[in-house]
Amino acid sequence: REVSCVRRDRTNTPLQALVVMNDPQFIEASRNLAQHVIKAGGEDNQKLDRIAERLLCRPLKAPEAQILQASLNDLRAHYSAHAEDAQALINVGETKPDTQLNTAELATWTLVSSQVMNLDEVLNK
Question: 53-76 pLDDT, tens per residue?
Answer without folding.
Answer: 999 999 999 999 999 999 999 999
